[in-house]
Write a structure and sequence with these properties.
Helix content: 10-25%
Radius of gyration: 18 Å
Order of helices and strands: HEHHEHEEEEE
Largest sheet: 5 strands, mixed
Number of helices: 4
Pfam family, one: Methyltransf_21
Distance between the termini: 34 Å
Number of domains: 1
Protein name: Methyltransferase FkbM domain-containing protein
Number of strands: 7
Structural class: alpha+beta
Strand order of the largest sheet: 1-2-4-3-5
Domain Methyltransferase FkbM: 4-69
Amino acid sequence: AQNEVIQLTLDDFFESAKRGGPPKSPSPTRCPALIKIDVEGMELEVLEGASKVIMACHPVLYVENNCVASSKALIQLIAGFGLYRLYWDVRPFFNHANFRENLEDIFTDALVSINMIAVPTREKRFSLRNYVEIRNAEGGYYLHEYPLQWKNTTAVITQHGDADGCVR
């Protein structure tokens, strides 16, 4: 037997709450404080489908941005909301404080998680002094344009792929 999967944008999901919600789904009762997006190359589409919620609620956004091909469009879309300060968040895949307490790092320094944090300009509770602000007004759409502190040195880290596509 086939199962039907209901597909809704975040905007449609919140709009449906006003009409009693989609079948077999919980209905949101208030604005989200945070939206985390890591959907392997579909981040732009998710943001576009959440634009009404973003404009109405001003949540913090945590968005994967590891591909050169979509980086400029992602940054331009978030900047276009006119609500956010945007920062790079680059982390190694391995965390010494991992759940299983495994001390073996099987990843190389070439494998990092590249994300952005978008904090509403009206939000004053965040301390982002260890993050690098994205200067999109100056054209800084790509991570390699920003020298970062990485393992006690200054490093240039690049996103995957090129302007035509993303190789993972």
